[in-house]
UniProtKB/TrEMBL annotation:
Chain segments carrying region Disordered: 101-125
Keyword tags: Coiled coil
Designated name of the protein: DivIVA domain-containing protein
Top-level taxon: Bacteria
Entry coiled-coil feature ranges: 73-100
Compositional bias ranges of the Acidic residues kind: 116-125
């Protein structure tokens, strides 16, 4: 029985080795056709929260399709970075406007106080 299993194992290993080494016709395999699903994210506008909530990434044999998942995450990252930059720009503009208002408002308030004191002084005399 042992010899039979040993010979069967040798025959199977030899057959697999010949199959792999032979390789058939030797021609390269043709490119696989892309089996991508329709892209659910809008291409003509920035993504909204509802777009992200409805996003369903296509599933492959061992999980999500890496290329499509990476593409979706790259786009989300780029749009978030763009929004963060815009928010920072607007916050800087707001801080500048507030600083200008405080600087201009402080001078006006000081002028009123001085003018008010001067007027009261004139009235008292």
């Amino acid at each position: 029985m042992f010899w039979f299993l040993l010979i069967a194992l040798v025959v199977v290993v030899a057959a697999v080795a010949l199959f792999v080494a032979g390789g058939g016709s030797g021609a390269a395999l043709p490119e696989a056709a892309a089996d991508r699903t329709v892209w659910p994210l809008p291409a003509d506008r920035p993504m909204a929260r509802s777009d992200v909530e409805t996003l369903r990434l296509p599933v492959a044999l061992r999980g999500y399709r890496m290329a499509e998942t990476d593409e979706a995450l790259d786009r989300l990252g780029a749009e978030l970075a763009e929004r963060d930059a815009r928010i920072a720009e607007l916050e800087a503009a707001l801080a500048g406007a507030q600083a200008a208002a405080m600087g201009g408002g402080g001078a006006k308030a000081a002028g009123r106080t001085e003018g008010g004191d001067g007027e009261e002084g004139e009235k008292k005399e």
